Amino acid sequence: MSEFPGFPPGFVFGAATASYQIEGAAYEDGRGPSIWDTYSHTPGLVVNGDTGDVACDHYHRYPEDVALLRDLGVASYRFSIAWPRVVPDGTGPVNPKGLDFYSRLVDELLAAGIEPAATLYHWDLPQALEDRGGWRVRETAERFAEYTAVVAEHLGDRVPRWITLNEPWCSAFLGYSVGRHAPGAREGRGALAAAHHLLVGHGLAVRALRSAGVREVGITLNLDHHLPAAASDEDRQAVVRADTLHNLVWTEPILAGRYPDTEEDTWGELITAQDFRRDGDLELISQPLDFLGVNYYRPIVVADAPHRELDPALRVATDNRYAEAPMPGVRHTAMGWPVAPDTFTDLLVELKEQYGDALPPVHITENGSSENDEVSPDGAVHDTDRVTYLRDHLTALRAAIDAGVDVRGYYVWSLLDNFEWAFGYDKRFGIVRVDYDTQERTPKDSYHWYRRMIAAQRS
Fold first, then answer.
1. Annotated active-site residue in 108, 115, 366, 371
2. Mean pLDDT, 10 residues at a time, over the chain (459 residues)?
3. Is 366 among the residues known to form the active site?
4. How far is the C-alpha of 416 from the C-alpha of 306, rounded, in Å?
5. Which of 167, 252, 263, 371 is labelled catalytic?
6. How many CA atoms lie within 13 A of 139 on its CB side?
7. Is 167 a catalytic site residue?
């Protein structure tokens, strides 16, 4: 196998981060509290009691991080904007210092020859809006559109690529059903309402971005490739339910303008009362996009299983009569995720087969691995497993392109080690190591490999 898979001319290589995971400065310059501030400060919810109060201190060190990006040779940097830094209460007065931070970041990127790609929502909902119902209520989608208009007016002339939402599955289901993400709720109907209102918020944000005249608009979904644990009808039906929960709940409204025809079998009584849906919502949600962002890390093996909660009134939205099963015979990352790069190809090819011309050009907006990194006596981080993971997944991505999928770009996750949500600082995805005591940045072997690969595309 070649060390560096080749890509078509003009293919965009980038790196990605997210605001709460790296910025820190949680109480500076007028930033309001987010649901992740509340969640991480609640005892017992995050490993080691970690919070994003300081994180990677990117708020103060962004010039150093942009210099790392410049040396890496990426054409684009995907970052997210913290809603509570710009509109501290989610609605009402705008915080000029928050807008100014992102303006300085964008200018620093442009001066380095790097194209900014901005994500408007990477999970840090203003706490004041959660106190009024959060994504369970339609008002949050409306406030999101207002915030989008403010940011687009301020940055739209310099930021060409915009992402409305990052991984709404995590916001809706990890946040409102499983409770492993902020705001930590365990609900059934509330999670389904949150999923729908996130889609409505996406549609309203698309309108606001189009009105601002930005160049490219898309959304990022964490689509999963599901495999049956056994060749049985029961496990194959479990795959359908898993696919509905993880993928179809988003792709069907966005790309096909319809709700999944498998939703009743997946959610049963939870979906029968859909008073949160309104006439015209599907037209709003399914507006044409310039690209679809796809985040991909690993496949999920699925086995049929009974309901965990027998009372339908008490079920969470993720109780869909299936369970994740082990995937033997493959390496697993530090997250416990199986490494099977061929499933990356399969996911993208099947997505193209399913939606055809309705599928816009694709950008891989996240892909990477958490590994048990160690600092060697020479001061370096020789993360061989991460290098292999990246090489094999980029090779699988090239196979999808060869199979006819229009993929335009790839963003490695992540530039920096960072606050990994409920795992705190216990998991490291970065190609640059961060010493959280000193904030020293150390490029890992994976950083140097990715830099060489990008350079090889230009030779």
1. 366
2. 86 98 98 98 98 98 99 98 98 98 98 98 99 98 98 98 99 98 97 98 99 98 98 98 98 98 94 88 98 98 96 93 97 98 98 98 98 96 98 98 98 98 98 98 98 94
3. yes
4. 40
5. 167
6. 10
7. yes
